[in-house]
Amino acid sequence: MEREMKIRGLIIDPAANTPIVILKDVNGETLLPIWVGPFEANAIAYEIEKVSPPRPMTHDLLRNLIVQIGGNVRRIVVTELKNNTFYAVIELDVSGQMVLLDARPSDAIALALRADAPIFVNEAVLQSSSSVSSEKAAPAEGEEEDGDDMDFEWPEEIDESDIDRYKM
């Protein structure tokens, strides 16, 4: 089972200073944070804000290639969460043939935005991510807790006010 999601926001994790894409269930209140790299976040932000770079970015190039070979992006699916790493596939229709491409979710999302394709997340990923995102590793015996991030405690659940507070 999969749920359709939309991008709710692009924020900065104040503890790690890294970008996070927030996906929101189109038929509910479920939010899924996916940590992404700065270049992918930039590519996503450009498309969200409808900024046109002077030359095509990598995701624009990929979309153009897909169109030139007669294909289209049907949808992207965040399929799995293993060892705190998300996995995704891009579903293409190329001349009536379904083609699946393995992708990082950040690249798949950047392409989906450019191709106006829907974003889906596997239900198992949503169930796994809630336990992963709320767990905090305890320090090993004899180690002290690192105090660097003690000024900020990441919320167990992200709500609308968190998204507005930490926008990029």
Could you give a short description of this structure?
The chain contains five helices and seven strands; from the N terminus they run βββααβββαβαα.
Provide structural commentary.
- With 168 residues, this protein is of the alpha+beta class.
- The protein has one domain: Bifunctional nuclease domain.
- 30% of the residues lie in helices and 35% in strands.
- The chain contains five helices and seven strands.
- A seven-stranded mixed β-sheet has the order 3-2-1-7-4-5-6.
- A hairpin with a 2-residue loop joins strand 5 (85-94) and strand 6 (97-103).
- Mean pLDDT is 83; it is low at 131-156.
Annotate the secondary structure layout.
Layout: E1 2-13, E2 18-25, E3 31-35, H1 38-48, H2 58-68, E4 71-82, E5 85-94, E6 97-103, H3 105-115, E7 119-122, H4 123-134, H5 160-165
What features would you highlight for this structure?
alpha+beta, Bifunctional nuclease domain, 7-stranded mixed sheet, 5 helices
Rg of Cα set = 17 Å
Helix amount = 25-40%
Major sheet: order of its strands? 3-2-1-7-4-5-6
What is the end-to-end distance?
Answer: 32 Å
Q: Could you tell me the CATH topology label.
A: Bifunctional nuclease domain
Query: In the CATH hierarchy, what is the architecture at level 2?
Result: Roll
In sequence order, what are the helices and strands, one letter per element? EEEHHEEEHEHH
**Which oligomerization state do the chains in this entry correspond to?**
single chain
Number of domains: 1
Overall spatial form: globular
Low-confidence stretches: 131-156
In the CATH hierarchy, what is the class?
Answer: Alpha Beta
CATH superfamily: Bifunctional nuclease domain
Query: What is the structural class?
Result: alpha+beta
Give average pLDDT, whole number.
83
Largest sheet: 7 strands, mixed
